[in-house]
Amino acid sequence: MAKHDTPDATLPDFKALEAECMSIVQKTGKVLDKRAALLPLLKKASADGREAARQHLIANGSGIACAEMISDVQDKLITLVHRIVVETVYEGTGSEFAVAAVGGYGRSTLAPGSDIDLLFLLSAKSCPNANKAVEFLLYILWDLGFKVGHATRTVEECLRLSRTDMTIRTAILETRFICGEVLLVSELQKRFDSEVVEKTAHEFIAAKLAERDERHRKAGDTRYLVEPNVKEGKGALRDLHTLFWIAKYYYHISDPAELVKLGVLSRQEWRMFQKSDDFLWAVRCHMHFATGKPEERLSFDLQPEIAQNLGYHARPGLSAVERFMKHYFHVAKNVGDLTRIICASLEEKQAKAAPGLTAVIGRFANRPRRIPGTPEFIEDKGRIALSGPDVFTRDPINIMRFFYVADLHALELHPDALKAVTRSLPLINADFRENEEANRLFLSILTSKRDPALMLIRLNEAGVLGKFIPDFGRIVSMMQFNMYHHYTVDEHLIRSVGVLAEIDQGKHDEIHPLAVKLMPSIEERTVLFVAVLLHDVAKGRQEDHSIAGAKVARKLCPRLGLNEKQTELVVWLIEQHLLMSMVAQTRDLNDRKTITDFAEKVQSLDRLRMLLVLTVCDIRAVGPGVWNGWKGQLLRTLYYETELLLSGGFSESPRKERAKYAAEQLAASLSGWSQKDQKTYTKLHYQPYLLTVSLEDQVRHANFIRQADKAGQVLATMVRSHSFHAITEITVLAPDHPRLLSIIAGACAAAGANIADAQIFTTTDGRALDTILINREFDIDEDEMRRGNTISKMIEDVLAGKKRLPEVIATRAKAKKKSKTFTVKPHVTIANSLSNKFTVVEVECLDRIGLLAEVTAAFSDLSLDIHSARITTFGEKVIDTFYVTDLVGQKITNENRQASIVTRLKAVMNEQSDDARGKMPSGVLPPVPVKSPSPPKKARA
């Protein structure tokens, strides 16, 4: 963290303040008047004290110093009010009670927005005025705006409650005298040590570790969330506090620095403890100052400001905020290392004295024994340990053997052995990395049939993975500043391997059935595991990470023992690891050229299978909720269509013949219809509809249109929910209109629905049959159907002119908080090579409410006809693809026309939402006959 030159603000003069307060109180009569008269002076002193702490934090960057300054100001305020109370308001109560700080405040640290945790200790025979004095003091603190956690008890009550309540016991453990009768606090501390703490260390430690585990579970059980909780998350301040509580309880120390003298921590580890604590406190204090409240989640909108406050600057490939967050995750990892080291020391000391503690931390009870085939390691209580202190120095390759044997025998890792690994990291040098056996062992760990992700996590946590593969070390703790990725890059890669291992074991076939089905047929299993581990290894570089990652793989794979053919396959998979996802989500899979272009890049069925599995692993490991059944269906569609082409099974029969056959199939499926009605209905559809929509959906649409016609409905909607695909489908039948898709998109935005895809067709009698696919929101079908019907009603009302689109979208936008945290430079691509019949327009920009409606309205203004659309959202960024023609059905080939399209679309994407909404269509469509006597001159495909 950089230090700044801002001078420290001056702390309040509490001696002068005390004299002024005493004078005021003595001149004021009633108790309430005394409080009212004191309040302005005390408020100013509190605000000045906190401002001084803020200026000090900016000046030298020390979070601990800031927290201690705020605690000191708080102490002086409480001491001042206490003296006023016992000397002028409720005289003679000074020896009746004591005020003590507990919790974090008891450690003499206080964040700007933290609660003030106080214990009022009463003497056994305190007078009634003592309680009134406590009340007066509390009211002053409340009037000052502090949130006070407090308890008023005698010493005896504290001891009794602490025996049964672990929260109270922890609070009393951190009791610190502030003011009042010091003997009461001394008595509590002395009796607490002898009557409660003595011989209960195992009980306390077990409770604290269980509490920590539950806290981690609720927080996602990873320290690599990109919006971490700085107080409660894994690797955050609460973990350091837990270590302090455990050390203080067991070793009877008041300062964690004493752990060095006791041999629990080395001097280097103690410095790590101090730096971690100071950094986390600095981040937390900056967060509280920035928000004006006790905000503990380091959210995206806060990260840039905190990074700037701490003096981080951008470097090639990494923004300032990404460098700051990388440091944060390094600190979180260090906290994990410290936890492991201290727990190992506790277990060693308690192994004989407290079997109960050993059961909690160690979980096993059998004696150490030799592991067959390896003299270097032993099994100790179900964990792999070292047979001697020189195992690693004697042969550094034993570091990799240690993890290999642990995986082979499904053993946990002994904390002492892990500590030895961490301290032996300098042994992993160039010779180690080039060692044939080390690489063979690593590859065995990576491709293990057991749980390779778990062992990779352990290799990474110990620092071995980053040392063994330096390119991986560059992305350890690296975050990507966007809403799409939930984890750091290294965590994402290891989770990807975990997903692959599950697929390899045949698990979760209900989530991705095709990947599980294909996995046994993939011959180059090792290649796939290596590609999955390395696919994002070059993130954070100036060069495209897919290209740079392929270069890394080309050098690394031979070292790992892969032959030339395997290496080239890994290189290709990394270069193309985004291809299948982007094609599936942003291209029209019903357009044959999409499939032929994709097949030309893939070239073989083996590559296709491996790319499909890699794509599934990549998407699923991005974060919770990113993968859904709709994405799976898109990938399956792309796979099956490409498989047909690569295997020579793609239909080459003329399009006209295939359309004719599809119409015959549809007519035959309309059971209960007269031949006349069958013939009339099949003539409603153009070739694109007959060739791209499934027969099941065609029959469903036929019944829907027939029902609407019988009811005389010019406008009708139909809702269907797909729980597996996580998609809700809304079909709209309406008079065709150039702005129809724009109006439907606007209505969906007004109803809070995110559009995932759109199928757009026109019937020969001039009606539009559009199917809009929106992302599912509810797990229960009944709830989702109610939501779908609400959205369809909104579409009907807007199309019928009952509601005006600009107003309903404006109302929705006001309800949603605007965020300026992210920026995405608007980009428009126009391509005529991606489709034989259509011009493909791709827009990329920052997402916002009503964007799709605005963009599609712009297409109408430009006299372009949208034939199909792919709507894709990656966190805060959208990539929407439109297949368009001009009004006579031709591609847009004129360069000047293309330039005007780009200019107009960029203008829409750059406009502020409120300004753009004013230009949107009202949504009123003129009624037209349900059936036209002849086809319109222009029809959308």
UniProtKB/TrEMBL annotation:
Molecular functions (GO terms): [protein-PII] uridylyltransferase activity; phosphoric diester hydrolase activity
Reaction(s) catalysed by this chain's protein: [protein-PII]-L-tyrosine + UTP = [protein-PII]-uridylyl-L-tyrosine + diphosphate; [protein-PII]-uridylyl-L-tyrosine + H2O = [protein-PII]-L-tyrosine + UMP + H(+)
The entry's keywords: Hydrolase, Magnesium, Multifunctional enzyme, Nucleotidyltransferase, Repeat, Transferase
Start and end residues of each ACT domain: 729-810, 840-921
Comp. bias intervals (Pro residues): 924-941
PROSITE patterns cross-referenced by the UniProt entry: ACT, HD
Role: Modifies, by uridylylation and deuridylylation, the PII regulatory proteins (GlnB and homologs), in response to the nitrogen status of the cell that GlnD senses through the glutamine level. Under low glutamine levels, catalyzes the conversion of the PII proteins and UTP to PII-UMP and PPi, while under higher glutamine levels, GlnD hydrolyzes PII-UMP to PII and UMP (deuridylylation). Thus, controls uridylylation state and activity of the PII proteins, and plays an important role in the regulation of nitrogen metabolism.
Similarity remark: Belongs to the GlnD family.
Name of the featured protein: Bifunctional uridylyltransferase/uridylyl-removing enzyme
Organism from which the protein derives: Allorhizobium terrae
